[in-house]
């Protein structure tokens, strides 16, 4: 079959022919219907050899959806023909975190070398993929796979980040979203759907700001130090109740820290390497700073429910598997509007 692989440190991903995967006990073989292109893939492919932990060659794709093609011995919860989305942050299934569905924080994943598809295990950018357990599948229940595949990360990650701040986001509050790309443009919609907050979007690109307004941000402005005063003004001097940084570079983390008002939340989702010094007097009183990773199994079910209710719609650009390298080029150049989705079996 064809797969999109990262094959050499520092190279660009390429479409190659690889052996068809065979399903083992407890596993599920999917014919992939859709695979999302995430900025984290860019991050992974930018790592020097001494920091790269995902194995080579790596079949990319940690956002996946498919049709069950075959099931291994012992699989009883899904059957050939079922349309499913893949829960990506695989865990052991037995530890305290996994027992709560929080496999994104599995206590045994590192020791047991459990890695997500596309981030260690072969991912969804291929004609077929293996899912290690039926536990990691959620029925699409009528949702279109191409339209919704990115909810498995670009939806689930902001949903998890936002859900933890909900007690602070009642009516009359303000939430800031920094970076309105794949994750950010879904985050804006989630905030509008499940919180009472007024949403202020920040980006460095005017086209992304217009997308932010289209998907529900009440205010959108360029991401620069002037935005701190603008947010103070919009909030009557109080500062933001929550700031979600979907970029995470030093300039955006600085902005996030400066914008948060007393008792606010700063949530750094982007993995740009920025750091926020926390200490008395450095940020407003009682600000909480968090760095969440992906989301839980139950949260994926909830985010798909939001899509089914029409509250969240991913803005997509579609590409065939052969065109996938081009999608990554466009992501690299910051030119994707919303999310790029690869359709391997188009
Ligand atoms: P994306 O490329 O689709 O979007 C990034 C957006 O940020 C773009 O709109 C870009 O114009 C904007 N941007 C860039 N520099 C900026 C700046 N200085 N100020 C404001 N906006 C700026 O990326 P994505 O796929 O949405 O991923 C966003 C980030 O989240 C990445 O760092 C990614 O690796 C990370 N991520 C983290 C998790 C997690 O679990 N923590 C999960 C998925 C992705
Ligand atoms: Zn991702």
How would you characterize the overall build of this protein?
Keywords: Metal-binding, Oxidoreductase, Zinc. Its cofactor is Zn(2+). With 346 residues, the chain is α/β, with parallel strands linked by helices. It folds into 2 domains: 2-153 and 295-343, Medium-chain alcohol dehydrogenases, catalytic domain (Quinone Oxidoreductase, Chain A, domain 1, Alpha-Beta Complex), CATH 3.90.180.10; 156-290, NAD(P)-binding Rossmann-like Domain (Rossmann fold, 3-Layer(aba) Sandwich). 25% of the residues lie in helices and 24% in strands. It contains 10 helices and 16 strands. The strands form 3 sheets. Strands 3, 5, 6, 7, 8, 15 and 16 form a 7-stranded mixed beta sheet that branches. The radius of gyration is 20 Å and the shape is globular. The structure holds nicotinamide-adenine-dinucleotide and zinc ion. Nicotinamide-adenine-dinucleotide (NAD) binds at residues 38-40, 43, 153, 157, 178-184, 202-205, 208, 223, 246-249, 251-252, 269-272, 293-294, 331, 334, 336.
Radius of gyration: 20 Å
The stretches of 5 or more residues where confidence is low (pLDDT under 50) are none
Shape: globular
What is the CATH H-level superfamily of the largest domain? Medium-chain alcohol dehydrogenases, catalytic domain
CATH fold title of the largest domain: Quinone Oxidoreductase, Chain A, domain 1
Separation, N- and C-terminal Cα atoms: 14 Å
Return the structural class. Answer: alpha/beta
CATH architecture of the largest domain: Alpha-Beta Complex
Largest sheet: 7 strands, mixed
CATH C-level category of the largest domain: Alpha Beta
List the total number of helices: 10
- List ligands, each type once: nicotinamide-adenine-dinucleotide, zinc ion
Mean pLDDT: 98
Approximate helicity band? 25-40%
Q: What pattern of helices and strands is seen along the backbone?
A: EEEHEEEHEEHHEHEHEHEHEEHEHE
Assembly status: single chain
What count of structural domains? Answer: 2
Total strands: 16
């Amino acid at each position: 079959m064809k797969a999109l692989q990262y094959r050499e440190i520092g190279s660009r991903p390429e479409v190659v022919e690889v052996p068809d995967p065979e399903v083992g006990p407890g596993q599920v073989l999917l014919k992939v219907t859709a695979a999302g292109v995430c900025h984290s893939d860019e991050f992974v492919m930018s790592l020097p050899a001494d920091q790269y932990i995902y194995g080579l060659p790596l079949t990319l794709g940690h956002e996946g959806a498919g049709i069950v093609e075959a099931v291994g011995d012992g699989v009883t919860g899904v059957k050939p023909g079922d349309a499913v989305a893949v829960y990506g942050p695989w865990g052991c299934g037995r530890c305290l975190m996994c027992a709560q569905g929080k496999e994104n924080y599995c206590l045994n994943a590192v020791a047991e070398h459990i890695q997500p598809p596309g981030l260690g295990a072969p991912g969804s950018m291929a004609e077929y993929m293996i899912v290690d357990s039926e536990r990691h599948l959620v029925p699409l229940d009528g949702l279109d796979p191409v339209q919704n595949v990115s909810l498995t990360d670009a939806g689930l990650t902001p949903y998890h980040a936002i859900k933890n701040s909900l007690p602070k986001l009642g009516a009359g509050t303000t939430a800031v979203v920094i970076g309105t790309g794949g994750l950010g443009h879904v985050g804006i919609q989630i905030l509008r759907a499940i919180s009472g907050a007024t949403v202020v979007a920040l980006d460095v690109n005017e086209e992304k700001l217009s997308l932010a307004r289209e998907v529900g941000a009440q205010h959108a402005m360029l991401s620069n130090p002037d935005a701190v005063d603008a947010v103070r003004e919009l909030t009557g001097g109080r500062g933001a109740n929550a700031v979600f940084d979907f970029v995470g570079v030093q300039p955006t983390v600085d902005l996030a820290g400066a914008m948060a008002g007393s008792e606010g939340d700063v949530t750094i989702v982007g993995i740009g390497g920025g750091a926020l010094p926390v200490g008395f007097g450095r940020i407003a009183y009682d600000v909480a700073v968090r760095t969440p990773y992906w989301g839980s199994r139950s949260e994926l079910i909830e985010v798909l429910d939001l899509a089914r209710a029409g509250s969240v719609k991913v803005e997509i650009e579609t590409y065939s598997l052969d065109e996938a390298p081009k999608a990554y080029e466009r992501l690299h150049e910051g030119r994707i509007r919303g999310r790029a989705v690869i359709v391997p079996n188009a």
